[in-house]
Amino acid sequence: MSDSQGIVIAQPLSVQLRDNFRDYGMSVIMGRALPDVRDGLKPVHRRILYAMHADGNTADKQYRKSAKTVGNVIGNYHPHGDSSVYDAMVRMSQSWNMGKILVDMHGNNGSMDGDAAAAMRYTEARLSRMAMEMLRDINKNTVDFVDNYDGSDTEPSVLPSRFPQILVNGTSGIAVGMATSIPSHNLTEVCNALIALIDNPDIDIETLMTYIKGPDFPTGGIIMGQENIKRAYETGRTGSGGSIKVRAKIDVIEKKGKTFLHITEIPYQVNKNKLMEKLELLQALHNQTENERKRNPKKVIEIKGYDFAARDGIDDETGKSEIAKDKVSIMIELKPGKNPIQVMNALFKNTELEKSVSVNLLALVPTDKGGTVPKTLNLKEVLVYYLQHQLEVIRRKFEYDLQDAVAKSHKLAGLIKALDKLDETIETIKASSSRADAISKLMDLLNVDETQAEDILGRRLQTLATFEQEELRNRYQDFLDQITYFKSVLEDEGKQKDIIKEDLRVIADKHGTERLTKIGGEIEAIDDESLIPNHEVVVTITHNGFIKRTLDSTYRIQRRKGRGVNAMSMYEDDFIQHLCYGHNHDVILFFTNYGKVYETKMHRIMEASATSRGFSIKTMFNFEEDEQIQTVLNIREFSDEQYLLFATSNGIVKKSRLSAYANIRSNGIKAIRLDENAKGVITDRLIGVSLTSGDSNITLVTQNGHSITFSETEVATIGRTGRGVKGITLAKNDKVISVDIHNGTSDLLVVTDNGFGKRTPLSEFRVQARGGKGVRAILLTDKSGTKVIGSSIVLEDDILMLITKNEGKLMKLAVKEISQFQRSTQGTKIINLYEGDSLSSIARVTDIDEEEETSDTQK
Predict the structure, then answer these.
(1) 122 is catalytic
(2) Do 272 and 143 share a structural domain?
(3) How many domains does the chain have?
(4) What's the pLDDT band for 325 if we cut at 50, 70, 90?
(5) Domain boundary at 459, 494, 518, which?
(6) Which of 52, 483, 544, 578 qualifies as a FRET site for 136, CA 20 to 30 Å off?
(7) Looking at residue 595, what DSSP letter applies?
(8) For the residues 787-794, what does the mean pLDDT come to?
(9) Is the pTM of this model over 0.70?
(10) 69 to each of 56, 63, 425, how far by Cα in Å?
């Protein structure tokens, strides 16, 4: 590089780049991106307002072409692109972006839908009345002026800003290595807070917040909670503690038997047109066909909770009537019977009807050396800096007024002396040979100074003769009174503060409005469960891994020997293997043959129709090769007071606390340690898991129709990865197929593959020591069946789910329809099977509404 004298200076490139980038960064920080705390404006906005003021384009004059203002700004103060200047000018005129507009624009200045303003040659503009308060007294030397970019003119370094613009309208900007984000506030609240600060300089931020409740956005909305507001006001930024949540204002309306959500206010700077596009997209996804859902099941999960009426159930009524003119009005029709709160939660979670607003009170603050530096401020510091600016503006204004009053009174004093000797004064002027001679003689005659003499000489003789001396002396006394008052104000800071307070009251009374943005209560993060009704559901899983969730109400209760309804359509080599009854909000645990457990929420399983095949479970879990689900269990709460009782096909039982299985990883965890051979191959299988309180009885039932009942207290509680102890001694080629927990007062239901079943009182199964061979539970014959496919502890009021293997039928059956038999009998047929079909599995269902059961049973 070379210096100003052309001497070449060797310098590393890295140093040159560093210095140049530093200069560029400071230029962006100081000259473009950050506002001055005193007037809340960036240079381009300040130059636009001053250019309009200098051109006389004020609120009391007619509109002028925007292009003229843009040209003045570019030519005199801001040598940048005209589009950037016009865009800044337009934004200052948009009521949905500014708490108080500073430019009054006539013509198309854009819209909340993101529409651009008309070209500057078409629109007209003038200063708004609030902008006049920003510029009031600027001609009285209240602020410093600096040379413009080419030294041909001067411009203000800051505006007087008689109201705290930095808070009222806020601002945002990104500089090099820093950014500012100041939300808008209510004018009346900010003025009242300033008055409180003037009255009590030691006021704390918590007390200031009794005046300034929080941001007040021009589009309204509801701020949820004050914790993050308080953090931002105390530290100057929301930071890692979280942002301010702003929600749309949504009313629930009942009209002509239909339910609507009426959106009347949306969060600040949300593009209404893009919001409508998002709503319509989500609505289309929600209403997609079952085949479309199968192709993209994960997308379906993301839009749970939407219950719009139809594809045309969303209507933007903004501007369609006088009532809705210039105000947001979006109507969403809901499906009959749907919960409006759940739909609103879904909208808040997945659209910009809830928006996070970050706060960073970063602004340029004045230094002792006359410059400015960027600084992050808390709420009180913002107000203190503004108040200091106003004190300086007031002092400089009164100093200007004092000098003006002194100068004018001084001239009037000389004029009064001339009138007292009017004839001599006129005669002296006439007799003078030159202007200098006249001034010299008047100074001697009237005992005045040169300035006074020049003022007298500059008046026409006729004017001197016609002056009303009484009026002149009154004017002179008025100036003397003003001088006394101005001096008293300049000598007393208390009076200066009183003037500022009165100005603030007048501005608040004249321009203040009610708060638009309401402050609501704190909210918790919206999760899937808050969007989904907690319906009773049935989850079915096939042998080939197809899973689905179906509303329990899909299946009607049938009497004994019914044929059932279609549970799902399947491939020829597939059959339903597992069934789990619960509620949408329950956790469902999947235990596999490898002794692992996986979990999910029931509502995360794809919902499908009664006849649908379902979805591959591989879309949910990453199973190992040959890993298969052996049993499923729904859990509503993981408690230390409850236990899981495990049983394996080899007759091993294990008891562990339920809480040890909470928060399972997506790739599953080990639920029980299964026996392995010398080569590490698992030789056992997990066949059942039951919830227990820890002091019940355990009944194991084997495939060959044997069972054993022993006390749960014989099984010690061990850790999650433990093996367990022997529960039953098995005969050759036999294995355990079910485990049940009970207190000995109900019935044991046993069902075979041929559709035979029976209820036997548990009193017929004596409690014996763990590890024995057990007793007969059912008599197996060629007619009744070759093996037991399931057992369950039941009460007479319970409902049973029966699943067939080949035809895929599911039947609800009241347990009271199944007769009681002794322990060693074969039972009776409980379901009519099609030829070649067999019973696959059973599950007990509880808490069914009695009236529904009676009604459906009678059909």
Answers:
(1) yes
(2) no
(3) 4
(4) very low
(5) 518
(6) 483
(7) S
(8) 88
(9) no
(10) 11, 11, 51
